[in-house]
Amino acid sequence: MIYQAMVGVGGIGSGSFFLLNGNHTLGREESRSGRFIKRNDYCKLHIVSHYVKTLLGLDFDTIPVGKVGDDDIGRKLYGEMREAGLNMSYVEVSENDQTLFSFCFIYPDGSGGNLTTDDSACSKVSPDFIRSAENEFKKYRGKGIALAVPEVSLAARQKLLELGTEYAFFRVASFSSGEMSEVKKKNLLNEVDLLALNLDEAKMVAGIDDKESLPDEVARSSVKRLSEINPGMYVTITAGKTGSWACDGKSLYFFPATEFPSPEADVVSTAGAGDAFLAGVISGLTAGLSLRQAQELGTLVGALSVTSPHTIHKGIGRKTLYEFAINKRIQISAEVKNFLELW
């Protein structure tokens, strides 16, 4: 493997899903009936770290840095992460704080939104707390991945990326649409080697507010803008059923989701699919695949992830991905096939 460890910061938390009756938009003072859906919800750092560890195995040190609350949810998440083989040395139980929690509401047509706590244990993840993991950066100097994803402060993620720069790590980041202006002001994109975007975030990067813009136009415009800011930076852009784009600083690759057929009957929930895709890309690059091949692996992980109601599909591994490709008659490259066969 090219890299030996990943040190990551981001949200660690849970949530609940509530299916509303009726597709009309919920009003400010409206009462609406519905029902809870049995789904296990996880946050970004947990999702990406879980899949990376599962795909890369015991020899790859996966080190999340974050906080959970001193509550039942926090203890459950901590136990699940440890069970998955994650290095929990830098996940702290924050006394008198609650674990990050989201209440997700879903309309019958599949659209929806969420309400997320802003005073959780994750809000206590500071730059100084990130600095406590510096020994891991020293240990894996030049041989590690630094991952910075949302749901903790931008300042904390900036510190992790700075440590990644100082110790010659491969730096991976994603930012929410609402953070993009601040990210540009802080020149944070110059501290990133791989930027993961969804289509809405790509629009913010490109300065496109036209809702009718075609996804391909958005992808090309955002990549062009990013190449002006940080030439050579890798970029991935996911667009759900449409597919994904990946740019290695020279060429832009489009991978249609139809290359990985997953009948509608198989799609249980798309929540977490973008994070699953990113984990696949990181795993592929770590294994020495090209960005194009890593994009293929990421698409495969994302395609299998949506067959689970939970935002982490705990059945995903190299063997199940290989079997999924065979059963669905998915054509995969020799390089990706070789990676999957090493279970």
Tag the structure with descriptive keywords.
12 helices, alpha/beta, 4-stranded mixed beta sheet, single chain, 343 residues, UDP-N-acetylmuramoyl-L-alanine:D-glutamate ligase, 13 strands
Helical fraction: 25-40%
- Please identify, by name, the CATH architecture of the domain at 8-22 and 35-173: 3-Layer(aba) Sandwich
Number of helices: 12
* Strand order across the largest sheet: 5-4-1-8-9-10-11-12-13
Helix and strand element order: EEEHEHEEEHHEHEHEHHEEEHHHH
Mean pLDDT: 92
Q: Could you describe the largest sheet, including whether it forms a barrel?
A: 9 strands, mixed
Which topology of the domain at 8-22 and 35-173 does CATH recognise? Answer: UDP-N-acetylmuramoyl-L-alanine:D-glutamate ligase
- The CATH homologous superfamily name of the domain at 8-22 and 35-173 equals Ribokinase
CATH hierarchy, class of the domain at 8-22 and 35-173: Alpha Beta
| Strand proportion | 15-25%
Number of strands: 13
Name the shape in a single word.
Answer: globular
What can you see in these coordinates?
By secondary structure, this protein is of the alpha/beta class. It has a domain of 154 residues: UDP-N-acetylmuramoyl-L-alanine:D-glutamate ligase (3-Layer(aba) Sandwich). Helix content is 36%, strand content 21%. It has twelve helices and 13 strands. Helix 2 links the parallel strand 4 and strand 5. Helix 1 packs parallel to helix 9 and helix 7 crosses helix 8.
